[in-house]
Design a protein that fits this description.
Structural class: alpha/beta
CATH topology: Rossmann fold
Distance between the termini: 45 Å
Bound molecules: S-adenosylmethionine
Strand order of the largest sheet: 3-2-1-4-5-9-6
Strand content: 15-25%
Radius of gyration: 16 Å
CATH superfamily: Vaccinia Virus protein VP39
Shape: globular
Largest sheet: 7 strands, mixed
Order of helices and strands: HHEHEHEEHEEEEE
Number of strands: 9
CATH architecture: 3-Layer(aba) Sandwich
CATH class: Alpha Beta
Length: about 200
């Protein structure tokens, strides 16, 4: 499928659920704080990754750097169990996500840095390339410091930074792979690596 047609179909999906488009091609205004651009995850990627998260009614997913909320939209559209929260550094994006998620009781959005959010209530984390490696390392250390029960974390980026999780005490790789081609056409500038990790504080 041509990229243009994929974009059109994703926009229709966004509009049906949220009443607004959730893709954003702008560059971030927060690069000095280590933020990456607000690229939304493709729906077909979310279908593939979230199916592997073993969510249940007691799950609480945090989308770290939620942008306008595409991952939250998929969570609601797919009627996944549990609830999902997004945290977003860029106030404009956070406000857009807050506005449409108000209609869904299982969704919420926090404006601010993921480094300031208490993490103990979350069972699952989704990170699509939100920030630079030094911030990612701080966030991983924050999970280790605050988590009191096993959690599942899904990370995706094009810069190979999943090495940050390797060899850390308590972390175990569940599955990993690459995404680049969808229905015969490349959909990312370069292949995206994803990995799903379990962290058990009791195993440290
Ligand atoms: C690649 S986008 C991912 C969007 C969304 N998670 C999705 O999958 O559709 C990364 C987002 O992370 C946000 N971000 C960067 N640093 C952040 C931080 N410290 N705390 C919260 N959000 C952050 C950026 O502003 C950007 O919107």
């Amino acid at each position: 499928m041509a990229l243009k047609e994929l974009n059109r179909q994703e926009l229709l999906r966004d509009l049906a659920l949220c009443g607004c488009g959730l893709a954003d091609e702008r560059s971030t205004r927060f690069a000095a704080e280590g933020a990456h651009d607000p690229t939304a995850t493709r729906y077909f990627v979310l279908e593939q990754l979230f199916a592997q998260l073993d969510l249940d009614e007691s799950s609480h997913l945090l989308d770290v750097g939620c942008g306008k909320g595409r991952a939250l939209a998929y969570f609601a559209e797919a009627k996944l169990p549990g609830c999902a929260t997004g945290v977003e550094l860029d106030p404009d994006l956070a406000r857009t996500a807050q506005a449409w998620t108000e209609n869904f009781e299982q969704l919420s959005v926090i404006e601010g840095s993921a480094l300031s959010v208490p993490l103990r209530r979350f069972t699952h984390f989704y990170l699509f390339n939100p920030f630079d490696s030094p911030i990612l390392e701080q966030f991983v250390e924050k999970i280790e410091a605050e988590t009191r029960r096993p959690i599942t974390l899904c990370h995706m980026s094009d810069n190979g930074e999943n090495y940050l999780f390797m060899g850390r005490s308590g972390w175990r790789l569940q599955s990993e792979g690459w995404i680049h081609i969808h229905q015969g056409a490349p959909v990312f500038g370069c292949p995206q690596h994803w990995s799903i990790w379990k962290f058990d504080p009791a195993a440290r």
